[in-house]
Give the backbone structure.
Amino acid sequence: MSKKILIIFNPTAGRGKRTLLESVVSKLEQAACDVEVYDTQCAGDAIQFLQAYDKPIDLIVAAGGDGTTNEVLNGMIGKEDIPLGIISSGTANVLAQELNMPSSAKAIADILVNGKSKPVYPCRLNDKRFIMMVGIGYDAWVVNGTSSALKKSVGKGAYIWSMFKYVLPYGSKQYQIAVDGEQYNVPSMIVTNGKKYGGNFTISQKADISAPTMQALIFTSTNRLTMIGYMLAMVFGIMERCTTLISVPAKRIEVSSNQPDVLQADGDPAGVLPAIMEIEETPIKILVAA
């Protein structure tokens, strides 16, 4: 019996990469797979399409970046028995880096046909899922302040201007945070579900995407130079060694502020504060190399 595969493709993610998609589909069909491809039309479309999809399938594939995977995961609520595959064609592709996903069509197709299931715990941000990270403060400002058009034209380089721009107001706001009941008052925080950030940078050595906990990275210093130091430490994978950064595992995190402020989840704008983040009790299955 042929494997029935549904691919959700975001043609605007990264720089399109339809050629990669077509190569993967060709190799899947050569392996006798029954492949259906759906091109998303706008933000939120993948969620609505998957929620309404009622045909029998063996595998759902997210073809795009982390934002596309985020939408697919939210559309898969109630379909957790179906494994998830990844074709990374976005800007940063943090989840693909986390899971050591290949970039060649042949290797991707091989995973989709013969890969093994890896348990991965999704998280919730208010009423929606996220898979890799949530940013509060500086990190959220950078993501919300980055032009989508610039991301399409220069890729990850689009974030660099925002990173420098938002160093100036860093420390101007304070956030009230409760990590499993422990209270903090801090200028910024990143909640990560995995080790990787911004592509292949290591933000946390302690995080484990297959464990039923998130990792809260709490920035306690309001000093701008210290913020730059955090970023440099991340480049070398040693940010958790910074003495003014607290890194703790968590199952539930609550965040509020006296001033309105934005959030980011999986590299896209994700609404405004207040926020409640929780780890889900049941993992999903993502296909990785056998």
Summary: The longest strand covers residues 4-9. The chain has a mean pLDDT of 93.
